[in-house]
Records
---
Amino acid sequence: MHAIYPGSFDPVTMGHIDIILRAAAQFDELTVAVLINHNKKGLFTIEERLDLLRESLKEYPEIKIESFSGLLIDYAAKKGEPVILRGLRAISDFENEMQLALANKNSNRNIETLFMVSNPKYSFLSSSLIREIAAFQGDVSNLVPPAVEKALRLKYKEGL
């Protein structure tokens, strides 16, 4: 079975990596799909996010890393209607994720959304929290992969 784990990954965190590795063990094929959102300016470019994911997951060549734009449900249909995998950190995530899952199901009844609960160790993590800590030169070394930590230091050292 094929699954897609979509997100902005700006930047990828250890919480994301945990979900990715656990999902890779459950599915025959896993694609990590980075959303290109033209309405949002990210800290990292799409190319940088893809590179950071590839570097962070280089020991797992079986995990595919791609980008997409437009509706996730359309991207999933083009990929052969795999499962959409979403991570849940807290109860507060559930309402929004459930709404998106139901909208996707309304658009394509053949595509299922599965939820994977975050490891409690990472349940407080978000990319926006990482960006905020890094902006003030805080220590994120145990919250992001080494390549991401280095990229954050460079990004904020150069000044946005």
Note: The CA atoms of residues 2 and 80 lie 9 Å apart.
---
Amino acid sequence: MKDQNQECCPKFEIEKWEGKTFKWENKRFIIETIPTFFHIPIPPMIGKMVNKMHELAEKFDATIPDKTEALILFRDPSAFKSEIYYSVTKEVEGANITTISGSFVTKVFDGPYNNIPGYIKEMEKYLSERNQFAKDYYVHYAYCPKCAKESGHNYMILFALVDY
């Protein structure tokens, strides 16, 4: 990928995501899995997988036109497996395609990856104040590690699935 000066990661707009509710109906994603060790992925593996997904989406002209709307979501169904969801606009031949539907409440956090359990607790408190409960969580990292270092921020959006 390119460095941030060449728009590797688009400038993150907090207000676009903080405290919002999104309703998705069969939102398409390419899905892949990578092994983790107690929820810790092997960093080079993430980059290779995301690049593979991006190249496949580009080949079939299925990338999200507005980079600020494109999502790469992560979900850990177990301590030893992470799922990566790459948003696409249409079916992609040869890709594992899935859809996600439901209502999602979002909150933006800025900090290290290992703070995610704390962010989930903050989200649970936020949801309980709204009489809501998370059925599942997905995380979107706004910047790759290089762009996070350059910007001085490691923004992530926590997506809480609150209704199917």
Note: DSSP finds three helices and seven strands in the chain.
---
Amino acid sequence: MNNKKIITIILGFGIVSLFVVYKIYNKPHVNVSDVKSDIIITADKIIDDFSSDEMKANKSYLDKIIKISGVISELKVVKQKGIITLKTNHDFGSVLCHLSDKATRKMNSLKEEQTITLKGICTGFLLDVILVNCEITY
């Protein structure tokens, strides 16, 4: 009787675990352009925050929809995805905005040294602040 109870608990736990993994794997992607920004900030401010206290900045910005403004320092396409680098007041850090497919198609109308506003999801800091799935909001 005791073995049956243990097997039932293990099977129940396994089924619940599989259901949770399935739901997480099939979670729909957020359409950044349709969602209100959680935070509106400049490239200089977000890099300052991450440089001064990364743990606190992670709590404030990680996985949030960020509307960010700055000056374009570089435009490039890597593996058919656009990346806009925003200048900051730090010598070694910048903000890298990985564009959505839709925004990548609009990249040819942009120029370096242009001021721009983008909206994306902050995924963290690795010398640069990284935003993904960015849309150009000008």
Note: The mean pLDDT is 88.
---
Amino acid sequence: MKRPDGVTVIAIYEFLTAIPGLIGMCAILVFAVPGALTGTEGIAGATVGLFVLLIVVLLIGAGALISVIAGWGLLGMKGWARWLAIVLAALSLLAFPVGTVIGALIIWYLLKDEVRQAFEAEA
């Protein structure tokens, strides 16, 4: 069965949502890390600052990676990617108002019978 066009659009959306995370990671590494290293807080302050920045970079990177994985899986019509995209859309409901609308539309679309059947046909 041919991949529905809406699934392709959602996959592209997942790829696009990863871009700000990747840019944010790069910005932190380029601007915040040198600032933490040259701060006046001493070695303890620099260590704590670098640790916090590392945690933030890892969380942002994990979020971006999960979006890329969801997009890739959707393009491959993987059932797990459909559920991952639904979970990501549910989380985006908290980003009022735009994320709420986009998340609700993604959930509605991915739960439609014909979309579910398209994923099951590929399994």
Note: Helices lie at 5-37, 42-75, 79-92, 98-110, 113-122.
